[in-house]
Structures are given as structure tokens and as C-alpha cells.
Amino acid sequence: MFGKRTTFGGNTPGIGEAPRPVASPPPAPVAMPAAQPTQRRAGDGDAMAARMRTTDEVLDVRAPADAQRAKEYFQTKSAIFNALIDSIDLSQLATMENQAAREEIRDIVSEIIALKSIVMSISEQEDLLEDICNDVLGYGPLEPLLARDDIADIMVNGSQKCYIEVGGKVRLTNVRFRDDAHLMNVCQRIVSQVGRRVDEGSPICDARLPDGSRVNVIAPPLAIDGAALTIRKFKKDKLTLQQLVKYNSISPEGAEVLRVLGRVRANVLISGGTGSGKTTLLNCLTAFIEKDERVITCEDSAELQLQQPHVVRLETRPPNLEGEGEITMRDLIKNCLRMRPERIIVGEVRGPEAFDLLQAMNTGHDGSMGTLHANSPREALSRLESMITMGGYALPSRTIREMIVSSIDVIVQAARLRDGSRRITHITEVLGMEGDVIVTQDVFVYDILGEDSGGMLIGKHRSTGITKPQFTERARYFNEEANLVEALERANTEQHEILGM
After folding, report:
1. Is the pTM value of this prediction over 0.85?
2. Contact assessment for residue 60 and residue 178, using Cβ atoms and an 8 Å cutoff
3. Per residue in 294-338, pLDDT tens?
4. CATH of domain 241-499
């Protein structure tokens, strides 16, 4: 299929040599150091030609730890990659399906290895083939990590350190980039897919991978020790409330209350710290939105995975090189009010857009949801007030608090505990005002009771004894009152049994 493959033969240049006549002797065999085993993952099949870079840019570090052997590995891979570029038709490669392109690259590389008399074992050759395919079609050294569904976060701190989070614990990996330029090249590949850029002129960038995983890049000169790349991976299979119950993130009764909240169009604010599972929980709650509702999502980088058929996804845009053309979260929320939404879902509230979201919740868009960073329901309310104040609104504190009370029905608090587990620690409803103070009421809370011999925390979700929360009227309207009351009574009965009452 690739016409340029006919360039292989007796007249093919040797490693690092100029073209030579047919009568020239073949190059000396090159010893190939052992390569580390890797897992495989098909890369993104789109824009393959744009990903073919110079040899220096695409070399990754699957080489041995020994410096000399690593150098030999790079030299060998460099020679093979140069020959690959000389022998492949990029325009045709770009039109092929990923798997077909991968097989074609493997065939060509195998021919190069044979014609150049490079000495290596079958397993070494297999690892090198996979290595080069990942560079050409994917994200180089990151591909084996992206393939694993048990990894929640990938954190690259410069070219020589890469950490992952598995099972709630952060661990150092042996993944390395050749140098800072190689790392920046991979960062550019990622952000360019969503029409963004990262360089010295624009050193901070939020982007996403094709599967929806969230990406943040901060580049030099802001990142002193080389670019910092952070990827928040999402599981291929979305978590459900039932799975959260299985993982003890919430009790069965608490999950039923959350289901009712999603069903009865309550305005829900999900609060939590970094990595506490706010977006996952938001995805779980949106699963109970009716399929005939028009839902509009507003996000900095699109990561929500709503399954309803009538969903409009909006995403912010950074300024261009001239500092113009920026579209902020406020702009998106203001515009979506003109799009006849029935529910507005905001990925994360972090600034003056809080005012516009509250306005939307208070003007007929029941069932709207959003997330913010806070460590408790009370702190979430304080942060909302602070965000509105920072937006330049000269409103009295009482007026802002009254707006919050009339807009937010329930705050769901998520937390990442010190053992790495994630729990829903509070389901708290917003009742009203007493004087200048917002009154809240916990419906469910999570108590930490101790820890086991393995250092894992032991805890229990419990009901606070509330049998008819304020949103019971709303549940009655949607014919969910019986389910809500049954869940609360079951939780209260279980609590009484634990206390021996």
C-alpha cells in the first residue's frame, strides 16, 4: 500500500550514513538492549500525519536504567525511526483505521530491522515495535498508563518523574520522557486536538483527551523544572449509584435519597476537595434526568458524560494570541439561558458565574446542578457568597444569602479520606434564614469510627433522624414521596438498632 516501501533494498542508507552505492558493505549489526515490558493500547487514529515528528521529538524512554544501554537504545530507535519516516507515505497512513495503520508500521519496522541487520530477540523486537507505534499513533510513554482502567490520575512532573494514583494512593512509576522537549511535544499533541495551544506565550492550558479525560498543562517558564502534565482519567464504564453503594461511598438508603433528588428536579450543589469524586457523583445524579428534558452543560473542558438524547454541551475558550476572543463560564451560562434549557449543569463553579447560576436556578430552571471546591456544606455556602462578591456585585450580604437559600435545595459533600477512599460525607438541605444566618439540616452524615490493621478507615453512614426533609413536598409532586419516606425510615430503623434503642 505504501509506495515508498520500495526504497528498501541494497541501496538503502545505513544507520546515520549518506546514501551509498549498491556495492557498499552492509552496516555492522547493532546490539539491542533489553526493553521493558509494556501494555498495549490503540492510539487515536485521527490526525496521524500531524503526529509524525522529528526523531528527537518522538523518542520515549522505554530503555534500561543503565545510562550506556539507554544511550544505545535511543541510537538504535533513532536509526529505525529515521528509516521509517523515509519509507512511509503519511498521506495514506492518515486515511487508515488505527489498527491497520499500526500493523503497517509494524511491518515496515520489521523490514528495517531485518535489512539493517539489527540484532535483537523476538521479545525485544516486539517491545520496540510497540514503542514506535505508540510514538507515531498515540502519546508515547503515556500510552501504557492510559490503557489501564484502574489509574485515576497521571501526574507528570518534568520529563523524569511520572506519578499515578491507583486505589487512592499516589505512586511513582518508571515512565520517563527523553527530555523536556519530548514532554512538551506530547503536551502539544494533546491540546492541539481541541484547538488549544501551550507554549511560553500561553503556558497554562486545560484540554481533554478523546475519551473525555481531563488534561491540565502548565509549561515553562511558569513550571520551573519542566512542563507539568496532569491527566484525570475517567473509567471506560461510568460509575452508577449502585456501584457507589458497592464501594461503600454511600449507604443504600443514602443512594435512594440521591436518586430521588435527581428525579424530583432539586437544585443540587456538589461540594468537595480536589480528587474527591465530585464529577463522578455529578454524572451519577444526571443519570436520573428524564430523557425528554433539554439539558445544557457548561464546562471549562468538556468531561461530563450525560446519556440523555437531548444534551447541548458548551465549553469555554481561552483568548487567542492577541488576547482576544475569550469565552468565559459567565458567557456560557448567560447564553444558555437563551437556549430554552430545562436543566443547566455547570461542571465547576469557581468565580462570578456563581451569580448567574443562582439566577438560573431561581428563574424556573429547577433541577440544575453544579460542583465547587469546599470542605464542608457550610464552607460551600461561604464560598458561593465569596464568589459573588468577587464578581463586583455591590449587594448586601443578606441579599446574597437570601438568593442562595432560594436557589440551592441540597448540598452533597464528597471527600477523599486519608486512606485514599472516597465517601459521600453529607447530604445537607438548605432550609432558610434565621436573621442573617443560613440554616442547614443534615439528612445523612458519615462518621469515622477508627481504622483497621491495614490502615484503612472504618466508618458508617447514618441518618440524622430526619423523616420529612423540606424537599418532601417536591417529592410528593413527582410521586416519589413514598420512596423517600421509606428510605429515611429504613435508615432510621437501622440507626436505632445500632444504638440498641
Report:
1. no
2. yes
3. 999 998 877 788 888 899 999 888 887 777 888 999 899 989 888
4. 3.40.50.300
